[in-house]
Amino acid sequence: MGTLYLVATPIGNLEDITLRALRVLREAQLIAAEDTRHTRILLDHYQITTPCISYHEHNKLARRDEILAALQAGDVALVSDAGTPAIADPGHELVQACLAAGHTVTPIPGPSAPLAALIASGMDTGRFAFIGFLPRQPRERRELLSEIADLTITIICFETPHRLLEALRDIAATLGERQLAVANDLTKRFEAIFRGTANELIEHFTNYPPRGEFTIVIAGATPTGERKRDRQRLRVQLASAGPETIAAYLRQLAAQGVSGSAAVRRAAQELGAPKNTVYDVWREIFGE
């Protein structure tokens, strides 16, 4: 039975590929590529003639059986347009199907935009989380940012150029004045990494409209003494004001675009109140 190889390919510079990756791409009987035209540029550069088929978000289910059949006869290499496949790209379902069918799945490590941005960001690399692309809808984006606001680990995400300013505004409103690194077109000719707070980066990208691909690295929250005192103050307020304090805090979260379930959960945690009590207050205010 054949092996499915998950082959990391360059994220911008064609020189960023390992000798092992080139050998696997030559020896495989088939390459499943996110965009065959894009992958053909890489293959032509290294004079690799292995046949290619497309495997992307819109045909991944239809292609699955075809790739499984090909694995009965030999090895298949899976590549994305850039970087490591199955990371914010199609591939996860194919890996599961191959494992279920008894095939070996082997990673061929190499370029990765999240890791490249992280190690050059200046942020803590000891603990981090990659959350993929930020949601397109503002409400969903603010809700996600609210959910990760208390994480003390470094956060990495992707964003498109036409949504970058909106995302930075939501980061500023939700996460406050913490440090960011915004990596633009990593490994390409005009690679640049911009560092600063969200508001500082908003000013920069307002003056210089964003273009290309962006990876955002966000410093984790720091549980400072001041922050702890603020939480204690909220709990004291709760004891004296009761439902009024809960209502005020829920309105504040709702104004930030936080959904009902997330607001109830966060208010209960921050205020030290029973979740059922907070939910009853939410229903009185918003009728949900």
Walk me through what this model shows:
With 288 residues, the protein is of the alpha/beta class. Helix content is 47%, strand content 17%. It has a five-stranded parallel β-sheet, sandwiched between helices. It has a five-stranded mixed β-sheet with strand order 6-7-10-8-9, sandwiched between helices. A hairpin with a 7-residue loop joins strand 8 and strand 9. Helix 10 packs across helix 11. The longest helix has 17 residues. The mean pLDDT is 90.
Please give the structural blueprint:
Layout: E1 3-7, H1 19-27, E2 30-33, H2 36-45, E3 52-54, H3 60-71, E4 76-79, H4 92-100, E5 104-108, H5 113-121, E6 128-133, H6 138-147, E7 154-159, H7 164-175, E8 179-184, E9 192-197, H8 198-207, E10 214-218, H9 225-241, H10 243-255, H11 260-271, H12 275-286
Parallel strand pairs: 1-4, 1-5, 2-3, 2-4, 6-7
Antiparallel strand pairs: 7-10, 8-9, 8-10
The mean pLDDT is 90
Please tell me what the overall shape is. globular
Rg from alpha-carbon coordinates: 23 Å
Instruction: Name the helix and strand elements from N-terminus to C-terminus, one letter apiece.
Output: EHEHEHEHEHEHEHEEHEHHHH
Strand order of the largest sheet: 3-2-4-1-5
Contiguous uncertain segments of 5+ residues: none
| Major pleated sheet | 5 strands, parallel
Number of helices: 12
The SS-based structural class is: alpha/beta
Number of strands: 10
Report the portion of residues in β strands.
15-25%
Q: What gap, in angstroms, lies between the N and C termini?
A: 55 Å
Helix coverage percent: 40-55%
